Amino acid sequence: MDFNTIFKQILAHVPRNHFNKAVKAFGTDRYVKKFSTWNQFTANLFAQITGRDSLRSITTALGVHINRWYHMGFSKVTRSTLAHANKKRNYRVYETLFYKILQRCSDFTPKHKFKFKNPLYTLDSTTIDLCLSIFPWATFRKRKGAIKLHYLMDHRGEIPSFIVISEGKHSDIKIAREVDLPLSSDSIIAIDRGYTDYRWLWRLNLKKCFFVTRTKKDMAYRVIGQQEVRGRGVLADETVELTVPQSAAKYPGKMRVVTYLDEESGKAYCFLTNNFHLAASTIAAIYKERWQIETFFKWIKQNLKIKTFIGTSQNAVMTQIWIAMIYYLLLAYIKYQTKFNRSLLELSRLLREALFMNLVIIDLLSLDISDIQKAIQDNAQMEFW
After folding, report:
1. Hey, is 21 helix, strand or coil?
2. In sequence order, what are the residues at sequence separation of 6 or more whose Cβ sits closer than 8 angstroms to the Cβ of residue 305?
3. Beta carbons within 10 angstroms of residue 280's beta carbon
4. Pair 146, 168: CB distance under 8 Å
5. How far is the C-alpha of 232 from the C-alpha of 133, rounded, in Å?
6. Is the terminal CB of the chain with fewer CB neighbours within 10 Å at N or C?
7. Which residues of 120-132 are buried (b: 16+ CB within 10 A; e: fewer)?
């Protein structure tokens, strides 16, 4: 019997032709007889959706539903088979797939909340601590291991548009200097003070990209002009240039410093930007919007399996992270395509509970968790995991 389950419908959103091209390019199915790269992806995606955090848990749950896997060319999976695949098969297959799904997802994401039409991004990173004795390749400090996830978040739909995974010891600005961020000439990028490298900011300026950050405490500059103070909370709006010769050589142009009083905290903040067109209050609001990425970091750490790893090799960890991010994109794609008006957390819970139900996704999204749980109980063919 061909089961048109929720899980099968989720997999239908994965561009299989691009997946197959990546598999061929990296040769991950070479000499493989049974457990293909697609099977590996399916098993790991299943683990993400259902919150499995061990090989035993994954393979046991897969075994329970083996009759529903058959129509997807799936056979019994052992722990050793899955562990070997995660360790040996090049994780870049899933990195490539992530960006292909991102292209499709971007077509459905809503606009950001601001009136201006410029694309708005936030660049930041989050650190995932690891045990150095178990993950010796992830050196961070003398007795501590870690990896760092660097994100460029698109505020249209709050999806990651660019990801770099590095060792924990790599600084944020080092990664920013080395990578070619996918920014169009009119983009606005919000960054914290850790990215204040004047040579890199000048590179953004030459690309006609706008940055918004906070001024460093030791930033030496002279005021060469002032704009009329407008907007609630705006204390000053000044045109400045750097005065330290070394800094001025790195950034020889003019910048704008907006001093803003935050009513909630009662504190005054100084924002640095190369954008002279937007209102000073909008510059402050852009930087405040940067905190949305912290909410994103918190969400993925709490709801995706990227803190507990089912493999210890670098390739296994990278595989798990990229598949986790693919699942995040699939969630966002389903949410925006179906105009689901509840949170991603609620969507992920609905999908987890109904994963093997024979139900159209659009019908599923009209239900709540209690409805689904009752339907599972009433259906003798559906089992709990």
Report:
1. helix
2. 47, 48, 51, 52, 53, 320, 324
3. 25
4. yes
5. 53
6. N
7. bbbbbbbebebeb
What are 111's two structure tokens? 């606009």
Residues 354 and 356: their CA atoms lie apart, in Å, by 6
Residue 273: closest CA among 209, 224, 339: 209
Two structure tokens written together for 87? 């360790």
Residue with tokens 């009759």: 67
Buried b (16+ CB within 10 A) or exposed e, 216-230: eeebebeeeeeeeee
Instruction: List, in sequence order, the alpha helices (H) in the chain.
Output: 6-11, 16-26, 37-50, 55-64, 66-69, 79-88, 92-106, 172-178, 198-206, 245-250, 280-289, 292-303, 314-338, 344-353, 361-364, 369-378
- In tens, the pLDDT along 147-204 reads 889 999 999 888 888 999 888 888 889 999 999 898 999 999 999 999 999 999 999 9
With contact defined as beta carbons under 8 Å apart, do 219 and 248 qualify? no
Convert the pLDDT of each residue in 231-278 to its tens digit. 888 999 999 999 999 999 999 999 999 999 988 888 999 999 999 999
Strand, coil or helix: 107: coil
Beta bridge partners of 273: 212, 256
335-350 pLDDT, tens digit each: 998 888 888 888 998 9
CA dist 223 and 228 (Å) reads 14
